[in-house]
Backbone:
């Protein structure tokens, strides 16, 4: 099925995101507290003092970030018209160097409801060392900040947690607050239903994947291998599979749990290619998550050995016999990509590895080994950066604006080491429930660079969860049948504009049924 749609650009100066009902009386609310979170409740009106709040982006961009800042600005100036919002430029590095600018209403007019982090810029500088923490404290004292708001993902949340603990030890009264951001969808908890940017990214990717599906059934001659973002978690691949019904979607977590070898994955795809060919369908669509290789047992072992060898300036000949075998059978381009410079954690940069080309190459080789006469023509796509700075969906535009408001309320009431959140997101915004989730409830112990450290845990696809089970129901039929669905561009009007992700909808329905 193909649904064409004529989506208009979101009018950035005219569209006003809906506010939750709690935000109509900012000075009439307070927080109740339990072991994991704060809940907003009504209180008697009072007069709040002006706030000076710092804010920065950290990590990769995600649609809606500018609306977080807009909501934060509107809220603190609603609380007290003399409040100030100070933006740190270039991400955490701007915090270390005190590189700032004061955010005003006129500047916000140009970026409300648009994508990108261009208002302040972003970066991936880590704030971990004691001298860095001291620099941050000095900057906070110089500016006289009441609160510091980090807009970022799990690594950023980890930084915020350790910084807030340091500030407490140093008797600083500056609150540290996090706004949950990541298109990967892996920053979730019992209380955080979704990170911002995931909805928009999946809608953008699903539009492109849907277009490719329609191209496949139009041209009738190509197998399209599509890689989508998601290094550690396959939430994007799973969501896009539910939105578009490709013939095959591989979920990394399932591969990891079952220790599925590379050959078995290839045979699974080849079997589908042969079944479809028997029906006269020498075409199809395969969806792969970015992080797949690190979940395949022999590839995971090879990558870990290569990481150690490169870190020690060793030579490839010192690979174990098994890993050397797998390395040498790989195409030269893939070998070269596996040897590229590592990231700040010492990990291979999976976004630059052409996993989609490797898998299709192996499929073609397996077809040849079976003496298959099937015509197999592969096309390759990596869809990633297209979805990070798109105009936000109405959901993300509204969600982000309201998250900014929650962040302001947490700042006003000096709630530190807390992530701003909203619950009941499948309902209309006036039924959303503002919360503050204590970062301590989201921490786990993880080994990084050989040292155990408290970090905010990434949330992977739950193979026992309702969303994955929904996918399992349809995947066997999708392998052979053309059940393609093309959702079209992001909608800013009509019923389609009110949609949330399949993931959020299924999880909400599942939770309601269990109560």
Residues:
């Amino acid at each position: 099925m193909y649904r064409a749609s004529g989506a208009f650009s979101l009018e950035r100066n005219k569209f006003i995101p809906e506010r939750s009902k709690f935000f109509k009386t900012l000075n009439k609310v307070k927080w109740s507290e339990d072991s994991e979170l704060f809940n907003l409740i009504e209180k008697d009106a009072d007069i709040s003092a002006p706030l000076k709040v710092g804010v920065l982006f950290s990590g990769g961009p995600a649609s809606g970030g500018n609306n977080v800042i807009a909501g934060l600005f509107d809220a603190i100036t609603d609380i007290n018209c003399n409040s100030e919002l100070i933006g740190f430029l270039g991400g955490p590095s701007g915090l270390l160097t005190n590189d700032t600018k004061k955010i005003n209403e006129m500047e916000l007019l140009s970026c409300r409801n648009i994508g990108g982090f261009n208002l302040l810029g972003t970066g991936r500088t880590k704030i971990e060392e004691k001298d860095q923490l001291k620099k941050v404290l000095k900057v906070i004292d110089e500016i006289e900040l009441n609160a510091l708001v980090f807009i970022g993902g799990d690594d950023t949340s980890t930084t915020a947690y350790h910084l807030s603990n340091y500030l407490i030890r140093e008797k600083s009264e500056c609150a540290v607050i996090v706004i949950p951001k990541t298109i990967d969808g892996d920053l979730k908890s019992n209380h955080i239903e979704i990170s911002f940017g995931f909805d928009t990214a999946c809608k953008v990717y699903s539009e492109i994947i849907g277009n490719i599906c329609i191209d496949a059934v139009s041209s009738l001659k190509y197998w399209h291998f599509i890689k989508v973002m998601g290094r550690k978690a396959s939430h994007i691949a799973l969501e896009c599979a539910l939105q578009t019904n490709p013939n095959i979607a591989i979920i990394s977590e399932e591969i990891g749990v079952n220790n599925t070898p590379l050959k078995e994955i290839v045979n699974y795809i080849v079997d589908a290619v042969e079944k479809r060919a028997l029906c006269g369908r020498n075409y199809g669509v395969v969806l792969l998550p970015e992080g797949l290789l690190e979940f395949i047992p022999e590839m995971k072992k090879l990558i870990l050995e290569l990481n150690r060898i490169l870190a020690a300036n060793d030579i490839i000949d010192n690979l174990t016999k098994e890993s050397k075998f797998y390395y040498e059978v790989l195409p030269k381009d893939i070998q070269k990509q596996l040897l590229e410079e590592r990231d700040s954690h010492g990990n291979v940069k999976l976004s630059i590895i052409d996993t989609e080309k490797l898998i299709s190459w192996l499929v073609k080789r397996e077809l040849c080994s079976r003496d298959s006469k099937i015509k197999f023509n592969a096309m390759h796509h990596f869809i990633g950066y297209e979805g990070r700075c798109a105009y936000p969906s109405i959901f993300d535009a509204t969600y982000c604006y309201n998250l900014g408001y929650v962040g302001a309320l947490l700042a006003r009431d000096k709630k530190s080491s807390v992530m701003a959140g909203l619950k009941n997101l499948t309902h209309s915004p006036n039924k959303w429930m503002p919360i503050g989730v204590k970062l301590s409830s989201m921490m786990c112990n993880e080994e990084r660079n050989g040292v155990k450290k408290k970090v905010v845990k990434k949330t992977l696809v739950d193979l026992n969860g309702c969303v994955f089970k929904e996918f399992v129901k349809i995947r066997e039929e999708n392998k052979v049948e053309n059940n393609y669905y093309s959702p079209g561009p992001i909608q800013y009007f009509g019923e389609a504009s009110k949609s949330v992700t399949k993931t959020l909808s299924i999880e909400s329905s599942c939770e309601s049924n269990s109560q």
